[in-house]
Design a protein that fits this description.
By secondary structure, the chain is α+β, with helices and mostly antiparallel strands. The chain is about 20% helix and about 40% strand. The protein contains two helices and nine strands; from the N terminus they run αββββββαβββ. The protein has helices at about 1-20, 100-105, and strands at about 25-35, 40-50, 55-60, 65-70, 75-85, 90-95, 115-120, 125-130, 135-140. The strands form two sheets. It has a five-stranded mixed β-sheet with strand order 4-1-7-8-9, with helices on one face. The chain has a four-stranded antiparallel β-sheet with strand order 3-2-5-6, with no helix packed on it. It is elongated and about 75 Å long. The termini are far apart. It holds the Pfam family Self-incomp_S1. It comes from Camelina sativa. It is found in: Secreted. Its main location: secreted. Belongs to the plant self-incompatibility (S1) protein family.
């Protein structure tokens, strides 16, 4: 009986570790932070897969907008953002892909469970959670217009 209980205990600990490492059904966040100079607003519109788009959000300087969700197989959240005040400069990007490689390589890991994007004057950055630094991911596109709204 004692050996069975010990074996059960070790199997339980191993299972808890495996559950923690499973990406599916985990809660996750995407945050977009406006760090544009001169109090410029940032216009944001995101969509999960083929679902409904979020409301269009106008984010003031130093403001942060967050989407909370659960990760399911094939989770994809992509965003369009426009740089104010004229909203001519645009960026379209995959803000989250439900794959371990994306979370590790782009967001820098799952702790904390957030992928933080930052709009700056020269483009869009993402924070590497593991080291706390930001990396330029894409530059602003001036060929797009605000007519891209979903």
């Amino acid at each position: 009986m004692g050996k069975t209980l010990i074996c059960f205990f070790f199997l339980f600990l191993f299972s808890v570790q495996k559950i923690d490492s499973i990406l599916i059904f985990r809660r996750f966040n995407i945050s977009i932070w406006n760090r544009l100079s001169g109090d410029k607003k940032l216009m944001i519109n995101c969509r999960q897969g083929k679902g409904e788009a979020t409301d269009v959000v106008f984010l003031s300087f130093n403001g942060q907008w967050t989407i909370y969700f659960r990760v399911y197989p094939r989770t994809l959240i992509w965003c369009n953002i426009w740089k104010g005040p004229d909203y001519v400069q645009h960026a379209h990007f995959n803000a989250f892909i439900g794959k371990e490689s994306f979370i590790h390589d782009v967001c820098g890991g799952r702790k904390p469970n957030v992928c933080l994007w930052q709009a700056q004057e020269d483009g869009v950055y993402v924070r590497n959670n593991a080291v706390g630094t930001f990396k330029l991911m894409l530059e602003w596109d001036t060929n797009s217009s605000t007519n891209i709204l979903f």
